[in-house]
């Protein structure tokens, strides 16, 4: 309805009622106008009716929704199922063109506008979350691993002699395979044990740089968010080293946007040294379906190079999902989620510490990890090595998802590389342990129920062990 249609409507329905309806419509349009003008996440979240009005307005700008459109090409936004069309708000053409994921599509103006706005809103959220000096980003319809691969492939053209990627060890397959898939040789640098924490061995990293030669190194591939007892890499020192030896630096920030500590590390690293790009997952940070990531950096031209490296058009679904989510939450809503994540981290730590003490275990001291926690399982290991792995199975069958049980001595071959002590980020970590994470969206009820079920599982395993050995069960109160 435009002003002309509202004027005509006054001949059908009382003008005072029409004016009231027109004002209501303008209140929606005012929010849309501010989004278009500022390109920032609104402070307060929008209603679903405003979001749907906006998406429908975008959809009618795409050629597949033109009333008189006659498509004779091979890709005309045709959809056989109306259910699929509604699921995507009839935004069918995707984003980008064959040569650039950020390019404008002439026959998909609405989808192109959606893409540009999403990237702008996400950039605003990255700044809000702590990386104030980030200059450019884009949403890519691939998860974190493949997005890292895209970054490495882009660097290949800048460093044709680059063969190696220096990688402080983190036992997570996708980031390792991202380097292999891109055609490079990962140089695994073992972490050092400081108290209970596994931290970056800066001396070992520098030795590898000098041994291999800076010109032969594609980049340093560091990590922020990770499972305890590993903690975020020493980003400031790595960034300084990257600048010193003129080596690119790519950061795997998979679920670090939700952590002010991880984002501060990136901000400081860029300030004192060199960070070329940092990559983060959409689903882990913004509670949307799996399938998207954000590639961001401090040099706009380099981020644009990465976007141009993506071959072909791309799905708009991740962009649509995160835009809807951020418009729903607003900046204030997202800040509230970040505050709740910190609060739940403290609560989870308290409850795990209490439970650990009741079972003769302890909460490992990992203060540099702002998301993940670890509880020792030395007592279970002493009973039987099988009891440790059995605990993981018991938790899963009792619908406790996300908890990781790490036994001693695991070995795993990943893309031709043998990892000893796999899942523990170290060849010889001294304790078996259980991981739990306070990620964005976790609730107090999640923590309480997890602790209750974990307590029952531990008691059950101890009872089984005592029955086998014939020794009495010591009394503890949890």
Helix and strand topology:
Layout: H1 3-9, H2 15-38, H3 48-59, H4 82-87, H5 109-128, E1 136-140, H6 144-158, E2 164-168, H7 173-181, E3 185-189, E4 192-194, E5 197-199, H8 202-212, E6 217-223, H9 235-245, E7 249-252, H10 260-272, E8 277-281, H11 282-286, E9 293-297, H12 300-309, H13 317-358, E10 372-376, H14 378-383, H15 385-397, E11 404-406, E12 411-414, E13 417-420, E14 433-437, H16 444-469
Parallel strand pairs: 2-3, 2-6, 6-7, 7-8
Antiparallel strand pairs: 1-9, 4-5, 8-9, 10-14, 11-14, 12-13
GO cellular component, one term: cytoplasm
Binding site for pyridoxal 5'-phosphate: 75
Subcellular location: Cytoplasm
Commentary on this structure:
By secondary structure, the protein is an alpha/beta fold. It has 16 helices and 14 strands. Strands 1-9-8-7-6-2-3 form a seven-stranded mixed beta sheet, sandwiched between helices. The longest helix has 42 residues, at 317-358. The chain is globular. Converts O-phosphoseryl-tRNA(Sec) to selenocysteinyl-tRNA(Sec) required for selenoprotein biosynthesis. TRNA binds at residues 271, 398, 463. Keywords: Cytoplasm, Protein biosynthesis, Pyridoxal phosphate, RNA-binding, Selenium, Transferase, tRNA-binding. The record marks 74 as: May act as a substrate filter by repelling compounds with a negatively charged alpha-carboxylate. GO terms for molecular function: O-phosphoseryl-tRNA(Sec) selenium transferase activity; tRNA binding.
